[in-house]
Amino acid sequence: MFVDDERRVMDSYVLELALCGYEVDFETKVDVAWEFFEENVDKIQLLILDIMMPPGENFKHAHTTGGLRTGVPFYKQVRQRAPRLPVVILTNVTDENVEQFFSQEKHCRFLRKVDYLPFEFAEEVNKIIPLPKKKKEDEDKEE
Description:
Blueprint: E1 2-3, H1 7-20, E2 26-27, H2 30-40, E3 47-49, H3 71-81, E4 87-91, H4 96-103, E5 108-112, H5 118-128, H6 136-142
Parallel strand pairs: 1-2, 1-3, 3-4, 4-5
């Protein structure tokens, strides 16, 4: 599951993950993303989450600093429902307190968007949830 309000910016990341063989559900609206998460929590293997997003209805009363930190309360609610779910925070936030918070969390990685091209990001995802290796005969069929 990938949650980021900038669809056009992140399309290349989603496409790269799909080309690698990952099934990606991309949500741009926090409320829709939360509903999807709640309905599919047992099926989701990885959450990729931006920090700066409009808070929507679900998080409008949370301390989001006008949407600059919406991903933080979203993440905290995820942790209540799925404490072991791997989460990748993929953001441009440069706040040291936010980075420190996520860096100390178990089953969580904090990555800056500017540091990863789509194929590099896909490699990081593969470290967290590796895709099965293709069998030799499958590779031969593709050629």
